[in-house]
Amino acid sequence: MFPIFNLVFAVPALIVLARWLSPLPVPIWAKIPVGLLMLAASQFHLWSRFSSGSVFAPEFSRPVVILFNWAFGALALLAVFQLVVDLGALVTMLVRRQAIREPATLRYAIAALAAGLAALGVANALRVPPVRDVTVAIRDLPPAFNGYRIIQLTDLHISRLFTAEWAHAVVERSNDAGADLIVVTGDFIDGSVDMRRDDVEPLRRLRAPDGVYAIPGNHEYFFDYDAWMRHLSGMGFRMLTNAHAVVERGGDRLVIAGVTDLSAPSVGQAGPDLTLALRNVPGDAPVILLDHQPGKARDAAAQGIALQLSGHTHGGMIRGLDRLVARGNAGFVSGRYAVGDMTLYVSNGTGLWPGFALRLGVPSEITRFTLRPMP
User: Fold this and answer.
1) What does the pLDDT average to over 64-68?
2) What b/e string do you get for 207-216 counting C-beta neighbours within 10 Å, with b at 16 or more?
3) Residue 117 and residue 138 in one domain
4) Which of 46, 52, 239, 301 could form a Cys-Cys staple with 59, CB 3.0–4.6 A?
5) 53 falls in which pLDDT band (50, 70, 90)?
6) Helix pair angle (62-96, 2-16), 10° resolution
7) Is residue 176 domain-shared with residue 306, that is, in the same domain?
8) pLDDT at 3
9) Who contacts 302 (Cβ-Cβ below 8 Å, separation ≥6)?
10) Residues 92 and 209 in one domain
């Protein structure tokens, strides 16, 4: 993974160096330091690995992590803008049948646009999300659960970027939302328990009358999975790892089931097993499934799940990029989907991976679901 990250994330910088910086009419002594800074920004994930041993956990001060995200985002956007300008120039040359030169003013303009959009994208990523209301119709919903409210948090990515202060604000907003039950659908952290112990501590104060349930995401497996499962359980989370819980109101019942992540077998852990998670589930109770990744939603629908809550995709982060992200997740990337008789909801995420923290047109969310019987 290490060489792949280096190569992939160097590409935007190389495009910018070759097609944006090199043709600029400025002295070579000015281009060299600018080029070196661009190359350094493109290797943010290499520096993260040096800082913590993992590309997923930059252990710099928060301002430095913010600066790296802005610089890397600006590079990526500038590379795209420059390719668009080059394509436009090529088409113009073919139509006019003569060579043209891209003006320096245009290069400066797209650089300013990239820098501004990157700053806006980072600011959008860092905000404490608002509560987003979603009503879901559930077939054969027991009367006692009509109007039942569930808060979903996902992809918190507690880190040097999303710190204890941010986590505290998320907890306060979630608790104030008045849910009957809270679920966290994975990717709590980026870092080891020792790195993140203080930053995750505010999550201990999540409260709901029927409890707080959770599943691991793929990032929990990038660090010491067993240590995190023990720590999160000790904080009051009921971890549904290929298991389920029954919520009862009077004589009515609702099942909350959870599976492990698809990445689990790669580190010797038990992979997702929906059959095991549903073993001995009451036949008269609708099932809400927590699955970090949405890609297996059709399998869940085939097993009679009423509602699946997922995350993982971050909604694609940038409008347009979401189409590419959807291709890697069976077509599911953001919002509500009807999958057979099942409703799938893919949250845009509450936080974001600190290695690429930009949001443009894809807002973060704390999602509040209200259950209603199907007409």
Assistant:
1) 96
2) ebebbbbbbb
3) no
4) 52
5) confident
6) 50
7) yes
8) 59
9) 340
10) no
In angstroms, the CA 352 to CA 68 distance is: 15
How far is 11 from 320, CA to CA, in rounded Å?
Answer: 19
Same domain, 96 and 162: no
Q: Of 75, 99, 125, which residue is a domain's last? A: 125
- pLDDT averaged over every residue in the chain: 94
Task: Please indicate, yes or no, whether residues 135 and 280 belong to a single structural domain of this protein.
Answer: yes
Where would I find the H helices in 53-103?
Answer: 62-96
pLDDT, tens only, 236-253: 999 999 999 999 998 899
- The range of the structural domain enclosing residue 231 comes to 128-373
Among 125, 156, 182, the domain boundary falls at: 125
Q: How far apart are CA 372 and CA 148, in angstroms?
A: 8
CB neighbourhood size of 251 (10 A): 9
**Same domain? 185 vs 101:** no
Q: Express the helix, strand and coil content of the chain in percent, nearest 5 each.
A: 45, 20, 35
In terms of Cα–Cα distance, which of 253, 255, 273 is closest to 264? Answer: 273
> How many angstroms from the chain centroid is the CA of residue 25?
40
Q: What is the DSSP letter of 164?
A: H
